[in-house]
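Write out this protein's structure.
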Amino acid sequence: MKVLKNIQGSNIFTYFDSSNILRGVYDMNQMSLTITFKDGKTYKYKNIPNRIFVQFERAESQGKYLNYHIKPYYDFERLENVEVDEMKKTIEQNKKRS
């Protein structure tokens, strides 16, 4: 479930209350979707049409959508792990507001 959406330039940052996914960053110019998982693993999926990002963002389960509609069809690269404490804090703060 989406808890926060923030647009900065050509990037859409979306934070999720999900069992596995913390954040998705969609770059509208590059058509890439960078997913950060709760364990800090980060993957960048390439050539993602905007409509696929919107469906991912609105899905009942982002993890299931990722597994069934993105992973099998789009190229990706593994990025370096990231620190997730601030992301988790942001999600918790925004869950309390809603």
